[in-house]
Amino acid sequence: MKITCSKQSLTNGIGIVSRAVPVNTTMPILKYILINAAGGEIRLTANDTDLGIETVIEGVIETSGIAAIEASVLSEAVRKMPDGDIHIDINEKDYTVHLTCDTEKIDFQITGTSGDDFTYLPEIEKKEPVEISMLAFKDMVRQTAFSLNANNENNRTTTGFDMIIYGDYMRLTTLDGHRVSIRNVDFGKEYEKQEVIIPGKTLKEISAIIPSDAEKFVSIYITDNHISFEFDNTVVVSRLIDGEYINVDKMITSEYKTKVVIDKKRLANSIDRSLFFSKEGNKKPIVVDIKEGVLNIQIKSSTGGLNEDIEIEKEGNDLTIGFNPKFVLDALKAIDDDEVTLYFINSISPVYIKDEKETYIYMILPINLS
Fold first, then answer.
1. How many whole angstroms separate alpha carbon 182 and alpha carbon 147?
2. Which of 228, 250, 272 is the C-terminal boundary of a domain?
3. What Cα–Cα distance (Å) separates residue 181 from each residue in 127, 327, 337?
4. Pick from 34, 57, 337, 352: CA 20 to 30 A from residue 321's CA?
5. One domain, residues 296 and 344
6. Measured between alpha carbons, how far is residue 335 from residues 100, 350, 355 in Å?
7. Is the pLDDT of residue 350 over 90?
8. pLDDT at residue 347 is higher than 80
């Protein structure tokens, strides 16, 4: 195999597919990136058997071929090469890899393998794709990922994103036992109803590599066991999580006894200050006291405390309630609006943070102050 690619193109491609390379594995081949130069395309692929990523990079193919190189070795070798074009020449007898360039007399030699044991991405049946803008999808993941229950071995369904496609909208949901995050986006066209649970790692990795482009789209294909995402020159294929997701619709209510409209930045800054007194090993709740026109935040600890008033628009009853400050702050950071609306029932029921159209809904359980 002989190919030539720019250092930037190689670096970008390696960075994309490396997100499917496992940190720890008993199968050494999973730590490798497959390079396949054929049919006028240079494809890089990595696959940990649960998550696979393939991307096409720009370059010139002098001689077609296929080989696998350990991801960390290839990444470091390319990083140490000068900027500009890099020539990759792989001897397919012993799979010695030569990296050279035109600007300096360098012959960087690393060892590869045939890739015969490499696990290719599964074939996905491609019916009509579900299409959503890259920016909208990236935002959906960002605005829900923080409440994944990443380490729940007893119920794997809560370690993933619940994706529902119904009619003309998509809904992503995550929950961790203390809070629920829901994000809805309208498609502008109708699709058949589908519901799948996607591993948390899959969507977090996609969110990290997908461009923030409102004009381009992600194409999503769903089968019984897998889901595939295609964007630009990249394909991501993931296994789905088996099981039935918790019915969060039963948790959400439109009833409330107290409604508060508040400046999001002021509330977030106040709660951020309160975290100074709610550090690891000393997880004090914030006490939120709501009266006409004012929301008061208090927290006390052995090192001091905070007492802060914020102007609000209030409808309904006065209320005193306690929260884990981090849970509230995570939700506020995910919201792009300047103002947020909070809905309360009483001091022992969840608070709901949502907009009028319910494009986002955050439910947070309170802490008992008694």
1. 10
2. 250
3. 30, 11, 16
4. 337
5. yes
6. 48, 18, 10
7. yes
8. yes
- The tokens for 186 are 């309208």
C-alpha angle 342/344/350, rounded to 5°? Answer: 100
Residue 184 tokens read as 């809805």
- 141 and 238 share a domain? yes
- Residue 140 shares a structural domain with residue 109: no
Residues 155 and 197 in one domain: yes
Task: Give domain status of residue 265, yes or no.
Answer: yes
Q: Which residues pair with 163 in a beta bridge?
A: 172, 196
The answer to whether 206 touches 132, Cβ cutoff 8 Å, is no
92: pLDDT strictly greater than 70: yes
Map residue 267 onto helix, strand or coil. helix
Residues 173, 282, single domain; the answer is no
207-249: pLDDT as tens digits: 999 999 999 999 999 999 999 999 999 999 999 999 999 999 9
Residue 144: which of 166, 164, 160 has the closest Cα? Answer: 160
d(CA 243, CA 256): 33
12-51 pLDDT tens trace: 999 999 999 999 888 999 999 999 999 999 999 999 999 9
Is residue 304 situated within a structural domain?
Answer: yes
Considering the domain architecture, whether residues 229 and 293 belong to the same structural domain is answered as: no
Q: How many domains does the chain have?
A: 3
CA dist 168 and 352 (Å) reads 24
CATH of the domain at 347: 3.10.150.10
Please list the alpha-helical segments (H only) found in the chain. Answer: 7-17, 71-79, 134-142, 200-209, 264-274, 325-334
Buried b or exposed e, range 8-25, using 16+ CB within 10 angstroms: ebbbbbbebbbbbbbeee
- Give domain status of residue 262, yes or no: yes
Which range marks the domain in which residue 71 is found? Answer: 2-113
Which among 260, 250, 246 is positioned nearest to 352, based on CA atoms? 260
The answer to whether residues 310 and 230 belong to one domain is no
Q: How far apart are CA 26 and CA 2, in angstroms?
A: 31
Q: How far apart are CA 205 and CA 188, in angstroms?
A: 26
CA 12, CA 17: separation in Å to the nearest integer? Answer: 9
Question: Do residues 137 and 222 share a domain?
Answer: yes
pLDDT at position 281 is 57
